[in-house]
Design goal:
8-stranded mixed sheet; alpha+beta; RNA-binding
RNA sequence: GCGGCGGUAGUUCAAUUGGUUAGAGCACCGGCCUGUCACGCCGGAAGUUGAGGGUUCGAGUCCCUUCCGCCGCGCCA
């Protein structure tokens, strides 16, 4: 490009620059060659600007413009002119002006793009992934990544201004026995030993609190070697934060302030404050999930005692065996046809329900239902009043173990809410969920932690940890928005005696607890202050704000569902020498389908 | 690991019941064009129908195996 340097970005040319001599740099978005005059839409990350090559302005530039093709890289010099009134393009921010080129430097040629770079062009995602550099040139992707940039800056500024120190923590760390599968990195200097990539910096940030750093934050990369979903990648980013000498309210205040600020600075949206709060029990009872989308105007009702003794054995039997009966009433459900009812029942069965009973209240108030005949007048009356049944209503019943009832009704609520358009016209609905249990039971009935083993119980429950572990409540909190869990955290156990008691309930004798977490327990004993914090899922927050389909829309270079990078073609095989250095030998031949780009 | 959907030209799609030489738009290449902005007009090239096997006189189409992509289950806070 010689000594020419950009004076303006393409997308920022305006009428106020008319008459100036400008230099723009960018990619050829489109060329319109009229023989005598050639128009080029030049693109950079700010947008498009029109460049005009006219023989009378510069015969050389016009002649050279003949070879220009899509995605060629140009540096163009000329005088900016106002367009004639009938040539103004109202669809472009730069549509009032155009650059009359007198010097053209083609600084690179380009192969034809593999697909159109328009926002609305339908392109298969695998093609986008293989040609990610082209995909990322599309304005929609540049907008999303810029939004994410602004999100990161907003969060970082909020933390810094609130007195938090940004401290990096190791990427090469130690495998943990709990939680997700670790990514392992073999150690060359210690053959047979492995580092692990962090699933989160949880313990290490607690050590920072022990060390007196008082307030820490980091935009931390985390790694979990589990199967991918639309909302789950192998590596992801968290705003990780921890503070000392605080209680739950102090942390929630920071969390709310940071979130509200991010929405203000990134989207120009003022979130209603304070954020509403919901207990875990209430959330499960009303919505069947601990991350409800409260915009959906349907709520679950409990009917366990109303039908405990009814003749319908599915209900009474479930109650007798310790389960419960809950229902989802749907007002004004006339549009749900009988065929759709059958499909919903089948859907519920896919979700794990044994069946899904329903009652439709006809216009004359009579009940149409396969199960109505098993219900006494008293039971009907109880159901109707509990669910506020009126003509036109439909109500779905689940009778099973609590976990199944909640799960199926929660999914049904979401499905019907969206299908019937029962979603309130409120774009952003943040919500804190509080008062989670510390412990829960796994499928075998064994007691396990609900979130992680370091969560502190509420102070008033500490005396009952051993005696009533499943009843005690934790200091854990979730931030939920529109049905998505954005972040969560808790106060941590800062006394080793309390932490050991919790390990004991989890089934670790002190010796084995010390073996696994000795460095943490020792650190607590060295003078740990009370502390707590949270971690914010940045990828999901960016996706929510940017409005894409999957995390791949807000990550520059994501992995496919089969955990490959089609652009870098990773993972790949390595040189045998590298394996030898690490003291490793392959037990299995490498996967022959090792060429992810060749489909 | 399992279930569902998909894979045809660079790209987005079509191709009757298994039936002639697998078509179209855009992109691409060549030509023409001085006011376009999805420019226009004329012409052209472009295919291992993801891969392998099978059935058949004949397979894009049917069967089997396999690879890749997406969504979900399991898994995972």
């Amino acid at each position: 490009m010689g000594n020419l340097r950009r004076t303006h970005y393409c997308g920022e040319l305006r009428a106020e620059h008319v008459g100036q001599r400008v230099v723009v740099c960018g990619w050829v978005h489109r060329r319109r060659d009229h023989g005598g005059v050639v128009f080029v839409d030049l693109r950079d990350r700010t947008g498009l600007g029109q460049v005009v090559f006219k023989p009378d302005a510069s015969p050389e530039a016009h002649a050279r413009a003949d070879v220009i093709r899509s995605e060629y890289v140009l540096v163009v010099c000329g005088v900016l002119e106002r367009r004639a009134d009938d040539a103004i393009n109202p669809n472009l921010p730069t549509g009032e002006v155009e650059l009359i080129a007198d010097e053209l430097r083609i600084v690179n040629f380009a192969t034809p793009p593999p697909f159109p770079l328009e926002d609305d062009a339908p392109v298969e995602e695998s093609t986008r992934m293989r040609y990610r550099a082209h995909d990322l040139r599309r304005a929609v992707m540049q907008r999303r990544l810029e939004l994410r940039h602004r999100l990161h800056q907003s969060l970082r500024a909020a933390c810094v201004e609130d007195g938090f120190l940004e401290i990096e923590t190791p990427i090469l760390t130690r495998a943990t026995p709990e939680g997700a599968r670790d990514f392992l990195v073999p150690s060359r200097l210690h053959p047979g030993s492995f580092f692990a990539l962090p699933q989160s910096p949880q313990i290490i940030k607690q050590l920072l609190m022990v060390a007196g750093y008082d307030r820490y934050f980091q935009i931390a990369r985390c790694f979990r070697d589990e199967d991918l979903r639309a909302d789950r990648q192998l590596e992801f980013s968290q705003l990780d934060l921890e503070m000392s000498f605080v209680g739950v309210e102090d942390v929630l205040e920071v969390l709310e302030e940071i979130t509200a600020r991010a929405f203000r600075e990134v989207l120009d949206v003022e979130l209603a404050r304070p954020f509403p709060r919901l207990s875990y029990d209430e959330s499960m009872a009303r919505y069947g999930t601990d991350r409800p989308d409260t915009r959906i105007e349907l709520e679950i009702v409990d009917l366990t005692d109303a039908v405990a003794d009814c003749e319908f054995k599915v209900f009474s039997g479930a109650v007798k065996s310790g389960g419960l009966v809950r229902a989802l009433p749907v007002p004004k459900a006339d549009e749900v046809s009988r065929g759709e009812l059958d499909r919903l029942v089948a859907l519920a069965q896919e979700w794990g329900a044994k069946g899904l009973a329903w009652i439709r209240v006809a216009d004359d108030g009579s009940w149409q239902s396969p199960i109505a005949k098993f219900l006494s007048d008293d039971e009907r009356e109880a159901i109707a009043s509990r669910a506020n049944l009126e003509p036109g209503h439909l109500i779905f019943f689940m009778a099973d173990r609590e976990s199944v009832v909640c799960d199926v009704l929660a999914r049904l609520r979401s499905e019907l809410g969206h299908r019937l358009g029962r979603v309130a016209d409120r774009p952003w609905e943040p919500l804190f969920v509080l008062d989670f249990p510390v412990f829960t039971q796994d499928d075998d009935g064994k007691i396990t932690y609900m979130h992680m083993p370091f969560v502190a119980p509420r102070e008033e429950d500490i005396g009952r940890i051993r005696s009533h572990p499943l009843e005690i409540r934790s200091t854990h909190y979730d931030l939920v928005m529109n049905g998505i869990e954005l972040g969560s955290g808790s106060l941590r156990n800062h006394r080793s005696d309390l932490q050991l008691e919790i390990f004991e309930v989890l089934g670790y004798a002190e010796a084995s607890a010390r073996e696994r977490f000795g460095f943490l327990l020792d650190a607590l004993d060295s003078g740990a202050p009370p502390h707590g914090g949270f971690a914010f899922g940045l990828d999901r927050l960016a996706l929510l704000m940017a409005g894409g389909e999957s995390l791949r829309d807000v990550i520059a270079f994501p992995k496919t569902q089969r955990a490959q990078d089609l652009f870098m073609q990773a993972p790949g095989q390595v040189d045998p020498d590298q394996l030898r250095d690490l003291g490793l030998r392959l037990r299995r031949k490498p996967d022959p389908a090792q060429d992810p780009g060749d489909s």
